[in-house]
Amino acid sequence: MVWAKVALAGGLLLLAAAFAVGTENQLSTSVMGQTQHCGTAIPASWLMSGSDDKAQAGSVATDDEKRAETACGPVVHESRVLVFTIMGVGGLLALVGWTAISTRREAVSRTVTHARA
Asked: What is the model's pTM?
């Protein structure tokens, strides 16, 4: 039964850690020798309405900004895939642990019989 509690705690910890990395880790790439900051894998606008993001693809003004946006696309995409995959694995691990704990509790409660005095 200890493995189920470890799976539940480990899964929740993995889920929280991946979310933290996705929201706090600032991504960057190099374009023509200059470092371009790409933002985070989970932008603030996904979490809170009204928060500012980097310029949208349609509003990019200069050629340099267009190159930077083009270079940041694969970096952000790869990071999102990694973060969401780890969050999914953590969620599944927590679900397995939770299911094992609840199944064990149901099995124990069924075997208990109440004696009448």
From this structure: 0.75
